[in-house]
Amino acid sequence: MDARVRTAVKAMRQRLDMQQRDLAKAVAVSRQTLSSIEAGETVPSTQIALALARELRCRVEDLFSLRGDGQVIEAEFVHDAGHGPADARKTRVSLGWVGERWVARLLETDEALALGTPADGIASLSKEKGRIKARVHPLRDLESLHRNLLVAGCDPALGLLGRHLEERFHGPRLHWIEKASRPALEELALGRVHMAGMHLLGEGGVGENAVAVRERFGSESMVLVTLASWEQGFASRPGRKYKSAADVERKGTRVIAREAGAGAQELLESLFRKAGRAFKHVVPVAVARGHRAVAQMVAMGVGDVGVATRSAAASFGLHFEPLAEARFDLVFPATLASDSRVQALLDCLSNARFRRDLGGMTGYRTARTGEALTGVQA
User: Fold this and answer.
1) 20 within 8 A of 13, measured Cβ to Cβ
2) What separation in angstroms does the CA of 18 have from each of 34, 55, 194, 242?
3) What is the DSSP secondary structure assignment for residue 200, as one 8-state letter?
4) I need a labelling partner for 105 at 20 to 30 A (CA). Which of 15, 89, 92, 241 fits?
5) CATH code of the domain occupying 147-378
């Protein structure tokens, strides 16, 4: 094959869990010929290339591309409201092959998480029929990009899982998109990520996680796999303790809230309901995006108290008053269960080294790590 041509036939075939002999038969070539094409030793004819694209449910340009700066990926562009790109001509993005299309997600340059994440490509953006499209010049080869996993959720342990995944399998890259539970589930429903992470009400069991999945996905079969269980509670500066809704309602208390749909926010509001009090009378001084953001705001004196994980509170030297144990589950469609990327992640969850590392994080419990609930549906 021409040294300038890059092939992703093998990666696409494995993504569909298809045997080499079956693909060869479907496109009417010998297994030896297909093996040569996958190894990059042979350039297929136009007819064979079109047949391969048909069987692998993709475009010819997804299978074969020229090396170098000329390669371009057309993708759907996704970003959070209020966090648009600074320059539409040159935007850092992560990429994921989701639902038979490319999704490009903005790497926000004002966030530490984004600054520490190598971009998959540099995109130029344009509007088409009210939607933003991205033309991405990739910084990694197409085969590697097809192995990316986009996961939305609020648990910082997703970053740890991603590092273990890369080390263990030398390939799959987990892009963690920080989202609260219900917004993460919505991203999954919209086909913008492969998995969503969530923790809603319930005393450490599947609880409301499964209920929320059923409500959002109806009859579609979904899988829930536990990443970890951890404690949530009031985080406050030493010397100022909060144990109840009445404490939070004290005159002058400055509350750091979470965004709508966050498990921590739902826990706080349920605490008020159980105490017969109305949370709507509490006016937060700020709304934080994530557990660490809550703890950081309290530590900086922006507010007096907020609900966060024990781990987040400890990282900023705050007092922690436990309220409930949360079970953080990863959710994905059952149709993805046999995907090689998902299989690699599930293998990582069951790995003893990862579990010991995860269990070493303050407040984390790993007894249920890797435990799955399949077939969740209405």
Assistant:
1) yes
2) 13, 10, 20, 56
3) -
4) 15
5) 3.40.190.290
Place of tokens 């409930």: 324
**Could you give the residue range(s) of every CATH 3.40.190.290 domain in the chain?**
147-378
Residue whose C-alpha is closest to residue 61's, from 172, 138, 129, 119: 138
Closest CA to 314 of 238, 239, 203: 238
Q: d(Cα 278, Cα 293) in Å, to the nearest integer?
A: 25
Assess if CATH 1.10.260.40 describes domain 5-66.
yes
Q: Give Cα separations from 318 to 7, 236, 265, 296, 301 (angstroms).
A: 52, 6, 19, 9, 11
Beta bridge partners of 233: 308, 322
Q: Is 122 helix (H, G, I), strand (E, B) or coil?
A: strand
Residues 203 and 322: their CA atoms lie apart, in Å, by 12
Strand partners, 235: 306, 320
Residue reference for tokens 């660490």 = 292
374 pLDDT more than 70? no
Quote the pLDDT of residue 378.
41
- Is 183 in a helix, a strand, or coil? helix
Angle CA 268–160–119, to nearest 5: 105
With 0.85 as the threshold, say if the pTM is over it. no
Identify the helix (H) or strand (E) that includes residue 142: helix 142-145
DSSP-derived pairing of the beta strands 64-66 and 5-7:
antiparallel
Is 225 within 8 Å of 214 (Cβ atoms)?
no
Among residues 6, 31, 35, the alpha carbon closest in space to that of 146 is found at: 6
Per-residue pLDDT, 353: 95
